[in-house]
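Form 12-C: Joint structure prediction
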Amino acid sequence: MNWNRMLSEKIVSMPRSGIREFFDLVTGSKDIISLGVGEPDFVTPWNIREAAIFSLEKGHTTYTSNYGLESLRREIAKYVGKFFRIDYDPLHEILPTVGVSEAIDLALRCLLNPGDEVLYHEPCYVSYAPTVLMAGGVATPVETSIDDLFALNPAKLEAAITPRTKVLMLNFPTNPTGSIAPLETLRAIADICIRHDLFVLTDEIYSELRYDGIEHTSIAALPGMKERCLLLHGFSKAFAMTGFRLGYACGPRELIEQMVKIHSYTMICPTITSQEAAIEALRHGTPEMLEMRDSYHMRRDYIVKRFNDMGMDCHLPGGAFYTFPSVKRFGLSSRDFSLRLIREQKVAGVPGTAFGACGEGYLRCCYATAFNLLEKACDKMECFCEGLLREQA
Amino acid sequence: MTQESILKLLEEDARLSDEQIAARLGVAVEDVRAERAALEQDGKIVGYQAIVNDDAEGVAAFIEVRCTPERGGGFNRLAQRIARFREVRSCYLISGSFDLLVMVEAKTLYEVANFVSEKLASLEGVLSTATQFKLKTYKHNGLLFEEEPTHERLSVAP
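Section 2 - Result
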């Protein structure tokens, strides 16, 4: 077979995720403490799992409407109304999808014509640029830095806008930095989007995981923004339901209608089991979700203090379950630091460069790991950092 | 607030040292030491024990006890008399069709029977007893006894 002829050039030329190399490395090694995961360490709360089992017991094993179960959409509307303070019509403005990833894919395919530009802030989740590319768009990163605590700087955003810019992708709290956008920043970004007529895909999958008693605000809740925003959310992080693969998009009916078209030809619908489990999560899952959040909060405070004490400068991330400490002082690239850390101390973090070139000098460390393992990982990293500093001296 | 947080951590793992608790809560070790001492002093922390799966050894029984309350003291004096027996592992005052729920542990069925007939049922104030033997423990103090092997997450994920 002549695969050069057979395979799509667009896909073949697309780079593999920078995380892949580390996955292979860590999977092959034993006794590694991994801070490289991107999901909760909690098992889905039992009442939600039980609802999934009950759904199967009742024989609910069919397709649902392409729009998903109406009962789920009504619960989502209620939850989003209360949590984000934005009202969406459950019949026309909400679409349950197979994770937020599918919703992003659908939205970009519905919004972009060939050559349309999409802006997004880097470092960011690994799939944004490839998804834009697959949808025929041009992905343009706007770099963020520690100077803005990795929030998007409105002036840099505005400078990156061209006549072809159509969409802005946002992700606050951010994977991999744990950063949040302060309200004034969100307001400035909203103002820019209105002035330049940009549409916003706002991935707020980590929005419940906000710390220090600060409430989450969505850009979609700001004046004039609902009509130009697609709010993307789901169950994976807050309700520890990654394996259920369930997300949803809330936004203008005109866009949702087009998204349902592709969704009906590709996914058809998320599994009914997941949808029924999600209803239970929305109705009764909040107390346990808050307990999980408090547990992440305690771990965040611990790990950030340890990192700073051992010489890895680390800002206090306002959300998600990631820290993004700097390794610049140790004279190694992110990649070399990570490789040596795995080899010498059996602790895995992900080099910041896996999330964009401007992640150089940083490491993503996820603290959704049992406390005793976090303690051990920190002890080992401390030992590693001390060694590196001695090498330098 | 610190007391509440300390209790929460210790209820999950009683072996945590004051230093570990201080690091997790981001407070000074001296504060943890003082708060823990206060909790112990006030009787809020009654003790620290290992949770042992002893289903395979000995016999345990849950005994429902009906008794006559005393004027002035209610059930307290009788309950405390019962609770002091070496064989009694737990003792609760319960609402409903009986008054005290007494959990008894012994080496043999015979010992439990002896305890009930000779010590418990014969106490003044005890009207009746109903003994149920434990067959298997599934969960105790919030801990599942037969945890399924944990499902491993991918060690690196986006």
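Section 3 - Comments
Strands of chain B lie at 59-67, 88-93, 100-106, 126-133, 139-140, 143-144. DSSP finds five helices and six strands in chain B.
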